[in-house]
Structures are given as C-alpha cells and as structure tokens.
C-alpha cells in the first residue's frame, strides 16, 4: 500500500494538534512542580531532522519547556543519569515511535523509564506512531519488528531478561491513545 509523503504543512498541522492536547494536559497537571513540561523520546536517525524537529519547534514557539537530548544536556553530563532525571522531571513524555526505535537499546531504556514514571508519579505519556502501526510495537512485527530483532541478535544471553522488560514496555505504550503519523509506506 502506498501513500504520499507527508508535506511540511501536514507535519506542522499534526504538531499543532499535539500542542492543543499538551496545553489541555499541562493546565491539568500544573499542581506538581516539574522542571520540564515535555520530554521527547525519539530515534534521532529516523525523525530528528523531520517530524521531531518540527514538533520541538512548534512546542517551543508556544512557550512550552521541552527537553530534547541534543540541546538540553550540559557538556560532561553522564547521559543516562541526565536523561533519567529529565524524564522524572517532566510533566509529559512524548514517545515518537519510528521504524528503527526498536533497534536502539538507549530508546528502549528511555521507554522503560517513561512507563515507570507513568505508573509511579502519574506522568502523562503521549505516543506518536511515526510510520509504524501500534500493532507493530505490540507484536514486534513489520519494519519495527525487524529493527527489534536486529537488537535482539546483538545482545548477550545474560541480557535476555531485558527483552521481556522492553517488550512489556512496548505493549504498554502501544495500548495508550496516541497519534498515528504516516510519512510514507
């Protein structure tokens, strides 16, 4: 099945939909002090130069404090500690799932932390399914499944327990109401 590539106007329109939803949810969650209003989790090679950068710019233009790893980390910070802290200190986590998200140990560890924060501190989680169907996450199929299998092939036997944790987090996130953004198929 083939669909046209999303135009920049369509991407900006989707970003506008996110902003409207963020504003409603931010007003509801202002009771808790958080350093960041939004934490963006994404696979850089898939979406940094397209959807995620548009979303980031749109949120910032609306005055929303967004944590995005390429400009929010201080030099010398240990990335895992900084990212975990940024996730914990955010009101909303936006996870931009893309075809290669499942091939990144880093992205999957972020996802596990985000889903933990949803359960323990009530963080709002908004999934964006960018060029992937939510069922591909639940069942690790399609292009997403191929990427996840690639990671599986690279991990050691001692780390296989992480696979269950990652799969559980993927299923949990895929069950949340989110946005589907089709770029190309």
TrEMBL record:
Superkingdom, natural source: Eukaryota
Transmembrane portions of the chain: none
PROSITE patterns linked: TIR (PS50104)
Transport listed as a keyword: no
InterPro entries for this protein: DUF761_pln (IPR008480), TIR_dom (IPR000157), Toll_tir_struct_dom_sf (IPR035897)
Residue span, TIR domain: 34-173
Record bears the keyword NAD: yes
Keywords, sorted A to Z: NAD
GO biological process, one term: signal transduction
Annotated PANTHER family: DISEASE RESISTANCE PROTEIN (TIR-NBS-LRR CLASS), TMV RESISTANCE PROTEIN N-LIKE
Protein name from the UniProt record: Disease resistance protein (TIR-NBS-LRR class)
Organism field: Trifolium pratense
Lineage: Eukaryota, Viridiplantae, Streptophyta, Embryophyta, Tracheophyta
